[in-house]
Amino acid sequence: MPELMSGLPLLPTSVVGSYPVPEWMERLKTDYYRGRMSHAQLQDLHDMAIKAALRDQELAGIDIVSDGELRRDNDIDYFLARMPGIDIPRTSKDFYFDYYEAKVSERLPVPVTAPMMLADDFAFTAEQTSGPVKFSFTGPFSLSRRIRNEAYDDPRELVLAIARVLNGEARALAARGARLLQIDEPFLAGYPGEVETAIRAVNIVTEGVDVTWALHICYGNRSARPSWGGHYDFLFPAVLDAKVDQFVLEFARKGYADLPVIEKFGSGRTIGLGVIDVKSAEVEAPEAVAAGIRSALSFVPADQLVINPDCGLRNISAPLARAKLAAMVAGAATVRSELTGAVHPLNPLKPSPQEPAP
After folding, report:
1. Rounded Cα–Cα distance for residues 156 and 201 (Å)
2. How far is CA 106 from each of CA 17, 146, 161, 199, rounded to the nearest angstrom?
3. Where would I find the beta strands (DSSP E) of the chain?
4. Distance CA 178, CA 209 (A)
5. In Å, how far are 77, 114, 132, 137, 303 from 147, measured between CA atoms?
6. Residue 101 and residue 179: Cα distance in Å, rounded?
7. Which of 46, 78, 137, 213 would you label with 170, given CA atoms 20 to 30 Å apart?
């Protein structure tokens, strides 16, 4: 596993990124967009919600936590609103989760600084926890799908331009101490013919940024429904050119039939294994989680697996998210104990040596 993972237990648990937004927070965020709440009050609200989400994850026993993406209204707007060269004529919303109507009329500049200030978001989160933090952001291909392009004759050039902006943000994140960055491409499954462009853009984002990189590709999670169907074979072999350390994929909802594809192409990457269906209100039994992990072990070595939900938890309630994370942690612990017995305190990736026979 990459260096960041070396201090974690076998089969470490993580989240994909987002965490539930409480109903009261939804109302207040919508009030902000309707002019009934100040920006300073909104920031206080975000800070409080992030602290609570981190506490929930820690109590569940998650090894690699996130900020829950709770500063973001959806998977797109937070980034486009801060990106130089993106025009958003109307910034009010009827409901906080609505998308802006964004357009680009001139070629995007490459900022000399990191104007989106994602590093500040990471720094706040890192101050609230002592464990590893995953920081995620939406990738250039998915961001481009929500922009009306009036500047580039070839839409692929817009994707690459966004990637250059995100590379600057990634460099700033690494400088502030980020060690695990994740690029989310939730739109890619809907455009399988664009995989090569998306991967080229991913490699621009990661260029020169020495951290552990993850790439999350799912089938969409708007309103807890998949946006597309299909199988992960559309990614291969192009995705193998991605300069990332980990693929974070959904399996719980779809089943584990795509695992042989990963084995066939021999990705050599760590796999973030989706074992929790975030589109279902049913809490998985820990044994069902354990069974999913055992299925994966037929195709992926245990030291190349990270255990996570299929996607972000934004669209389910907080009590359901807590229950699902607890089940995930328990299921991972079951399989871990089957593989290792006791865990050696000095090297969590190796079992303790056997005591000599008396």
Report:
1. 9
2. 32, 16, 11, 24
3. 102-104, 134-138, 147-149, 180-184, 212-217, 246-249, 270-276, 305-309
4. 10
5. 10, 20, 33, 17, 40
6. 33
7. 46
Quote the pLDDT of residue 132: 97
Residues belonging to the chain: 358
pLDDT band at 5 (very low <50, low <70, confident <90, very high): low
The type of residue at 293 is I
What integer pLDDT is reported at residue 220 of this predicted model?
A: 79
Distance from CA of residue 50 to its chain's centroid? 16
For residues 191 and 228, what is the distance between their CA atoms, to the nearest angstrom? Answer: 10
What's the mean per-residue pLDDT of the chain?
91
Alpha-carbon distance 21 to 269, whole Å?
A: 32
Whether 347 shows a pLDDT value over 60: the answer reads no
Query: Which candidate, 243, 284, 248, 222, places its Cα nearest to that of 66?
Result: 248
Cis peptide before 237 (omega within 30 of 0): yes
Q: Number of helices (H) and strands (E), helices first, in the chain?
A: 10, 8
Question: Is the Cα dihedral 341, 346, 350, 353 positive or negative?
Answer: negative
Tokens 């481009």, located at residue: 144
Residue with tokens 């739109």: 187
What is the amino acid identity at position 333? A
Q: Are 297 and 28 in contact (CB under 8 A)?
A: no
d(CA 218, CA 187): 8
DSSP label of 316? S
Distance of CA 308 to the CA centre of its chain: 10
How far CA 302 is from CA of 272, 298, 306, in Å, comes to 11, 9, 9
- What digits encode the pLDDT tens for the residues 211-258? 999 999 999 777 667 777 788 999 999 999 999 999 999 999 999 988
CA dist 230 and 193 (Å) reads 13
The verdict on pTM exceeding 0.90 is yes
CA 258 remoteness from chain centre: 20
- Can you tell me the mean pLDDT for 193-207? 97
Q: Which residues contact 285 (CB under 8 A, 6 or more apart)?
A: 327
